[in-house]
Amino acid sequence: MLARGFSWLGAGGGGNTLTLELILGQRRPWPLQVHGVHELDPDTPAVAVGYAGSTYLMTERLPDAALFAPLLAAAERWTGTPARAVCSMEGGGMNGLTPLLLAPELALIDADFTGRALPRFDQMTMFVDEVPGLLACVSTGAGGVCVIEASRSADVESLVRAAVVCAGGVGPVLIAGFTVGQLTDHAITGGMERALTLGRVDLGGPPLEVAASVGGRYVGGGRVESVTAGVADPYTSSALMAGDDGAVLRLVSHTEFLAVQRDGEAVASAPEVIVCIDPSSNEILEVHGIHPARRVEIFALPAPAWWSAAPHRLRHVTPAAYGVRGLDQDGGSCSTP
Amino acid sequence: MQHTLNLRALVAHPRNGGLRWIEPAENADLLDPVDIPLHDVALVTSVEELPSHGPAEAVGPGAPGPVGSLVVFTQPPPAEPWEADALLRRVKSRGHVALAFKEPADLGAGTLAVARRLGLHVLGSGAPLALARAAWELQGNQDALTLGYVRKVAQSVEYHADHVQDLLRHLAASVGHGVALVDREGVLLEAGQHLSPDLHAALCSDAWTQAAQAGDTSGASVRVESPSREGLRLVFFDGGLAGAQLSALAVAAEMAMPAVAARLLIDEVASVNNASIDSGLIRDFLEQPGGPDSDVRRRMHERGWRTSGVHLGFRIQGLSRLTPLELLRSVSRETGAWDVDTHVSTAGLGVIGWLTFPEPPSSRELERHTGALRELHRTLRRSFNVSTGVGTPEAGAEGLASSLDAAGEAARVAAHRERGGYFLRIDALGLEQLLLSRTRNDIFLPAARSLLQPLIEAGGELLPTLGAYLDHESSTAATAHALGFHRNTVSTRIERIKDLLGLDLADPDTRLAVHLALRALQD
C-alpha cells in the first residue's frame, strides 16, 4: 500500500518501488513504528536518506542498509553527534521507502524534503529554505565517502552529482546536520500517511471516482500518438495524445511528468503531482512507460501546501525550474517564441 | 465598423513576404471561399507584446465569422511543441483570429491539430515586416499600395522584352499577379496565370478602366490605346484581391498600358518588315522559271525554307479590299498549331503558303491536311472575303513553284465558284474550268466581246444558238433537238451567224476561239 502510494507521488519519476518493496518485506522486523515530527524531542539529531542517480541502475545494484553505514559514520564524525532519527529526502517513488532500511535502529519520522518526486538537491525543502549547517554525505563507490558542506544549494547539487557519477551512476546519499524540530518548518510532513491513503485507493473505478478518492482531478484520457524529445533538452519529452473528447492533449515530461496541455492550455503543471495510469492494467506509469498506442488516463494531485506557501519555494518546482517554458499555470513566467 | 482588411486579400498581396497558409492547408475546403475579415494586424516580437483584442466579435447577421486581428510574429515558432501550442492558445484567448510566423514555420502535427481545435488560422511569411507593411497598405493607405504596384510596373519595363508576350511575362512576374491582353472575342495573350472566361466577360467593356469579380478571382482592366489594333484591354487579375488592390491595380494597368501599346506597334512593324521580306523572296522564287538561283537559294535557306521534300501549295486571295497583314496574322495563328512544317507569306492581295512533308504524304494524310486548309478557309471567311486554292503535292524546288502556281490558279477559279464556298483544290478542277480560267482575264474578255459583238447587236437569240451548235459538235439535228427548234430554223440561224461574224466555223482553230469567247461571255 505504502509503495503504491509512493508510486502515485513519484509523478512518473522517482524510480520503481518494487525492488525495495521486496527487500524491505524480507529483512525488516514488521511492523515498523512511524513517528510524527511532534512525537519526538525537537532536539533529536536526524538524517534524511535516499538514493541519487539513475533509478534504472537500481534494478541491478540492489539497495542495502549496509551501504548507509559509512555515510552515517562520516556524518557523526563531522557533526560530533550520532543520529537518532531518520526521514526520507524525497517523498515519492522508491526514495519514499528508503528510510525504512534504517528503521527501527533509527526512529522513523513521517517527513521528507519534497512531498513528491523531484530530481535535484537544490529543490529539497531544506536547501530551498537555506537551513544553515546542512551536510550531505555521498558514497563515491568502493567504500569512499564524500562529505559536502556548502551554503549554496546549487553547489550541493553539482557536487553530489559528481560524487554519484564517481560511484558509478547511482548511490546512497545522506543529509545530516538538522534536528527533528527543524523538520516542522523546513520539511513536508505526513507524506507516508498520504502515501498510505493513496495506496489504498481502488483504481478499477471510473476515472472521476478515482480522482475523487485520491483527492485530485481527472485531467483527461486518451491514446498516445507520438512521443518526441525536446529540442533544447533531450531529457524533456512531450507525448502527443488524442483525447477521448477530441481535445489535443500534450503530456510534457522531464524526469517526472511536468505538465499537461489541453488544446494548448496548461491544465495541470508541477508542483502538482501528475500521475498517469494505464487503465487496462491499472499500472501507475513512469515517464518511460508512455509510448505510442498506449491508452493513458491522467490525474493531478494537489501539490503539498508547503511549496505554494512562499513564492521563493514555488519557483523551484514549476516547469520553468526544469528549463521548460510556456507551461506554468497562473503566475508562472510566460514563454516567448 | 468597416473592415477593409481581410486575410485573403493579404495572401493575394504580392509583397507579403511570401505569405502562405499553414493551417488550414492551402487547398482545404475550410478556406473556400469565405473571406476572413481582419480587425487589425499586430506586429509583435514576443508574446508579452501580444495585444488583447477582447473576445472575438461577430459583425452582423450573415457575417462570415468572428473578426479579430492577425498577429504577426517576427520570429519563427518556438522549437518546443508545447511552447507553440501554448502560444496558439494565448493568441486565440486574446481574441485574435490568425497568427503568422516568420519562416521557417514548421509546426508539428499536434500543434496543427491544436490550431484546428481552436479555429485559429496559422500562416507563414518569409518577411514579417513586409507582411505588416502589406497590411498597412491594404488598410487604407491606398497611395502606398498603388505606388508599390506602379514602381513594379516601371521596373518590369526596364527589362528587355522580345515581344509583347515577353513584356507581359515581365509584368506578371514583377507585379505578382496574372496579366492578360484580351479583346471581346477572348484572351489573346496571358502571363502568370490563366484568366477564366467568366472574369474575361466581366472585364470587357468600353470603359477606360474596369474592375470586376468572377467567382474567387477578380481583376482590373484598362483600354489599350493602340493605333494598329482596336478593342484591346490590358488586365491584371488574381484570386482574393480586395477592392483596394483592384483600384491600385487599375492604376498600375494604366501605367503599363502605354508600354504594352508601344510594344504592340513595334511588333507590328517587325512583322510587316518580316512579311515584306518573305513576300519579296517568294516573288523572286516564283519568277525564276528554271528553279531558284544560288542567291535566292541562300536567302531561302537563311529564312529556314526548305525546298527539299514534298510541298503542298495554297493561296488565299482577297475578293475585295483587305489588309494582307491582318490576313497573314490570322492564317499564321491557325497554321502555327498544325503538326506539319508550314510557311506563309503575304503575296499581292492575299497570302501564299505551303506545307512541306519530308516524305510524300499518303492520300489519307493529304486529305487530312486539305481538310485543315478547308477549315482554315472557313474560319477566315468569317472575317475576310477570300477565296482559297490548293495546289497538288509536288517534290523539290520546281515542284514547290508549280504547286504554288497551281494553287494560285485554283484560287482564281474559286473566286467565281460560290457553290464550292470559294474553295478549290486544283486536282478537283475540270479541265474545262482550267481552260476557262485562262480566258477570264482583262485581255481576253474585251476581245471575246468584240468578236461576238455582231451577234449581240443582231439580237440575243443568236448567242445561245451558236453555243448549242458548238456544244453539239456542229450538228444541226442535235442542236435543233436540244433547243426544241426545227432543224431549218437552226440551219438558217447558223448561216446568218456565219455571215455576221464573217468567220469559217469549219476551221478548228476558229471554232475553238469562238467557243471559248462564248463561254467567257456566258459565265
Report on the structure:
With 337 residues, chain A is an alpha+beta fold. Chain A folds into 2 domains: 2-192, CV3147-like domain (CV3147-like fold); 203-322, Beta Barrel (CV3147-like), CATH 2.40.390. Helix content of chain A is 24%, strand content 29%. Chain A is built from 10 helices and 16 strands. In chain A, a hairpin with a 2-residue loop joins β5 and β6 (144-148). In chain A, α1 packs across α7 (191-199). Chain A is globular and about 60 Å long. Chain B is of the alpha+beta class and 523 residues long. Chain B folds into 4 domains: 5-138, Udp-n-acetylmuramoylalanyl-d-glutamate--2,6- Diaminopimelate Ligase, Chain: A, domain 1 (3-Layer(aba) Sandwich); 142-265, Beta-Lactamase, CATH 3.30.450; 288-429, Alpha-Beta Plaits (2-Layer Sandwich), CATH 3.30.70; 444-522, PucR C-terminal helix-turn-helix domain (Arc Repressor Mutant, subunit A). In chain B, α6 (164-175) packs antiparallel against α8 and α15 crosses α16 (476-483). Chain B has 18 helices and 18 strands. In chain B, 48% of the residues lie in helices and 19% in strands. In chain B, a hairpin with a 2-residue loop joins β14 and β15 (350-357). Chain A binds chain B through residues 225-226, 228, 230-232, 236, 238, 240, 246-248, 250, 252, 259, 261, 263-266, 324-327, 334-337, and chain B through 46-48, 73, 75-90, 92-93, 101, 108-110, 113-114, 117-118.
Short account of what is shown:
The complex is a heterodimer of chains A (337) and B (523). Chain A has helices at 2-10, 18-27, 69-79, 125-128, 153-166, 180-186, 191-199, 207-214, 305-308, 311-314, and strands spanning 34-35, 45-53, 85-88, 107-112, 135-141, 144-148, 170-179, 188-189, 217-229, 237-243, 248-253, 257-262, 265-269, 273-278, 283-285, 295-301.
Q: Specify the helix fraction band of chain B.
A: 40-55%
Class from secondary-structure proportions of chain B: alpha+beta
Biggest protein-protein interface? A-B, 28 and 30 residues
- Mean pLDDT across every amino acid position of chain B: 83
Which radius of gyration of chain A do the C-alpha atoms yield?
19 Å
- DSSP strand count of chain A: 16
- Give unreliable regions of chain B as ranges: 55-65
Q: Work out the oligomeric state of the chains in this entry.
A: heterodimer
**Mean of pLDDT of chain A:** 88
How many domains comprise the coordinates of chain A? 2
Organism (chain B): Galactobacter valiniphilus
InterPro entries (chain B): CdaR-like_regulators, CdaR_GGDEF, PucR_C-HTH_dom, PucR_C-HTH_sf
Protein name (chain B): PucR family transcriptional regulator
Pfam family, one (chain B): GGDEF_2
